[in-house]
Amino acid sequence: MTNIRILNEEEMQAAILLANRIFRDAEQVPMQSGFPYLYSTTYGHSFGTFEGDRLLGFNGLLPAVLRVGPAAINVFSLGSVCIDPEARGRGYASSMLDNVKDHVKNAGASLLLVTGTRSLYTRAACHLFGAVTRVLLDQSCAHSILASKESQQYHLRAMKPYEWLQLHKVARSRDVHYEQSVWDFAGLTKAEAYASCVKLKHQVLVAERNGKVTAFAVVAVPKGTLQSRRPPFAIEWAGDASAVASLFAFATINSDIATLEVPVNWHEHELLEVLHRVPSTSEQNLGTVYIANIEQFVEEIRPYWMQHDASVGAQLTIHLVTDDEYELSLPQLPTLRLRGQQLTSLLFTPAAQIKLTEEWAAALHKLLPIPLPSTSGLNYI
């Protein structure tokens, strides 16, 4: 008989062994090194599927708070999902996901961010969301950026070991970000979660102006003899847009990278403008999102809405009416009913292809879409 439950300390050790067997090879650091918070029962709420005392499956689950302007959004992130090869095809992954979704709502989160897009998730109301411009910064573009007048005003260099407080101050200045303490920021940078999965290493760079740190960038670059599974890419950044672009260019040239990929979120308008001449591709945010409690989410995001349109922001309500179907309500307007993917796109994706009446479109245009921080940054699960 199988049993699904939150792992205790001893059971987490079995989960680490399973995850290392599934996700790691001899060249990579163990999963618990790359994801120290996820594989700790102190922070995580991770689930396992057991047959007796034997662990057959693992769902890594970790809480976080997203800052969107004045709003604080309670979320969980789901990743490191794995099933013992001998136990696949028995529905354990779906059963664990059902338990995770119930737990997320009961634990007080409004959203579940899922590192996965396969049908296991999309069938279970986890929907694609957001928009990212993947900038492809090659050597020629990098040299052009560094030769610009804007770039010349910065001193670009590697971070010094004692500068965590300064970098954290810059990170905290972002309107949209994961809530991170100084310890979180330093620990996640050192852990190299996403980079460790693709055999790259973090490099932390800073831009100074008049002796003051004005920007930083964490980039994942090759190191030693490791053969990476993907091109180098930017992990996380903050600060003045021209300084950030200069740091990307500096990283490209300094590490002799053919192309540095920079996944810029749709709401980072200033950085997109600085990099608008660099070749790019468009895609959606990494993974999917499940709305665990829409009523709670509306109340959590309302301070952000009030900033942009106090009248509509105070009155808009959204309710779940049936499984993955929602109603939006505003005084003097007919009720708007949307399926889950439609609502998710309307909430989080710019230029979403959702047919709205002129009245609804006019009412919502200052409130939506809502920006969310990148799920491929330091808080990657």
From TrEMBL:
- InterPro entries, A to Z: Acyl_CoA_acyltransferase (IPR016181), GNAT_dom (IPR000182)
State the Gene3D superfamilies in the record: 3.40.630.30
**Any single Pfam family the record assigns to this protein:** Acetyltransf_9
Q: What is this protein called?
A: GNAT family N-acetyltransferase
Instruction: Tell me where in this chain the N-acetyltransferase domain is found.
Output: 2-163
In terms of PROSITE patterns, this protein maps to: GNAT
